Amino acid sequence: MAKKATGSTADKKTADKKAGKTNAKSDDAADKQGKGKGGALKAATAVNVRHILCEKQSKALEALQKIQEGQRFDKVAQEYSEDKAKAGGSLGWQVRGSMVGAFQDAAFALQPSTVDKPILSPLVKTQFGYHIIMVEGRR
Question: Which of 25, 111, 117, 129 has the most crowded Cβ, counting Cβ within 10 A?
């Protein structure tokens, strides 16, 4: 059976998008941002991660609110985090298997961002407490 011709450029782009086809320029730009085709994150073996750890959920929510109000992640981490990593919450480069399950899943799902405009995880509960996580890089 023959394919129905539409003739519209917009229809062609929509069909290409559904078929997973994109132009090379958008793929290159997405790759530079740590994303693969379709906006999904490329697989990474390590992430440069920061976190804020609080034993109590109420304290973690307070820290999260400060960040959402525009305060820098590293400054909020120094004030609120109960972790030994007081260097603005930086844990450095972490590979898969070096972090606890829920923390690792959240970290590898995040897009890279900066401390002044962080992309955050929702609160992540582990045996250590409540974490607010951001990722500065992926490789």
Answer: 129
Q: What is the C-alpha to C-alpha distance for residues 137 and 89, in angstroms, rounded to an integer? A: 15
Tell me the pTM. Answer: 0.71
Q: What is the set of domains in the chain, with CATH numbers? A: 51-138 (3.10.50.40)
Q: Tell me the pLDDT tens digit for each residue of 4-28.
A: 444 444 444 444 444 443 333 333 3
Residue 80, SS3 per DSSP = helix
Cα–Cα nearest to 47, from 132, 118, 110:
110
β-strand 129-138 against 90-95: which pairing, if any?
A: unpaired
Structure tokens at 123: 């609160």
**Angle at 138 (CA atoms; ends 134, 139), nearest 5 degrees:** 160
